[in-house]
């Protein structure tokens, strides 16, 4: 069996798969070359860099490809429905990076609340803006979490331990023993901090109309997908003080090209590093290997 890890793979996972007889190609191929090569592989492993669209899936369907694994949480860079229609299974690794993303969100929240990011910049410029950086405490504030999957729940647990009041909105989860469910409009009207943890479904979840409903001075954090928040509307909200600060790890276009947002003094920005911890990468690799092995073990079991 041949595996193409087009966006790389953890060494331990690669070694485990190789020990089970898989041949692994860790080269990265751009779209046209990938279309030519993909038919020679049984498994395609991608992260967020490779977009698996219908053209690539059509090319894969001409050969031996049976499984696409997204080494990460979301699968919005894969046309999963079309792959399934062409007989190719799609899997992801939903458990591995929950804590790492939740911790990054908290990092952004602390940075915005206490001016850590901008103070670091101004001090390097020789400025001592002590009187300008009167922050707020997280304890006692209301955190609204939009999307209550594994990452959202991990964030809720951590924020609650810091003394924050947590409410959540999710299209599937309506009841929770520990945290309060809120309708979408109620959440964005009442939260002091809002963190988004949803996939991109084709249009922005938060735009100009939603910003107008929020508390003046709200903090926004996005470590999900760039397109779920309208960047132009966000910049306008920062400029008018509707949003006091924005922590952004994901962007409409990556690498980020919206320099007005990236350089905004009220923005704390990071280059899509939510899952970029040693621990998370090891877990992602381990879960990826387990996913591949379980898939083919099931095929063997059904054939016996």
Write a concise synopsis of the structure shown.
With 304 residues, this protein is of the alpha/beta class. Helix content is 39%, strand content 16%.
Query: Roughly how many Å apart are the termini?
Result: 19 Å
Which stretches are low in confidence, meaning pLDDT under 50 for 5 or more residues running? none
Number of helices: 12
Give the strand tally. Answer: 12
Q: Tell me the Rg in angstroms.
A: 21 Å
**Shape annotation:** elongated
Q: Compute the average pLDDT.
A: 95
Known CATH architecture of the largest domain: 3-Layer(aba) Sandwich
Q: Which CATH top level class of the largest domain fits?
A: Alpha Beta
Q: Would you identify the CATH H-level superfamily of the largest domain?
A: NAD(P)-binding Rossmann-like Domain
Major sheet attributes: 7 strands, parallel
> Would you tell me which CATH topology of the largest domain applies?
Rossmann fold
Give the strand order, joined by hyphens, for the main sheet.
8-7-6-9-10-11-12
Overall number of structural domains: 2
- Order of helical and strand elements: EHEHEHEHEHHEHEEHEHEHEHEH
Beta content: 15-25%
Q: Which structural class do the helices and strands define?
A: alpha/beta
Structural topology:
Elements: E1 2-5, H1 11-19, E2 23-25, H2 31-37, E3 43-46, H3 54-61, E4 67-70, H4 80-85, E5 89-92, H5 98-113, H6 116-124, E6 142-146, H7 150-161, E7 165-169, E8 180-181, H8 184-190, E9 193-196, H9 208-213, E10 218-222, H10 231-239, E11 243-248, H11 259-262, E12 267-269, H12 278-303
Parallel strand pairs: 1-2, 1-3, 3-4, 4-5, 6-7, 6-9, 7-8, 9-10, 10-11, 11-12
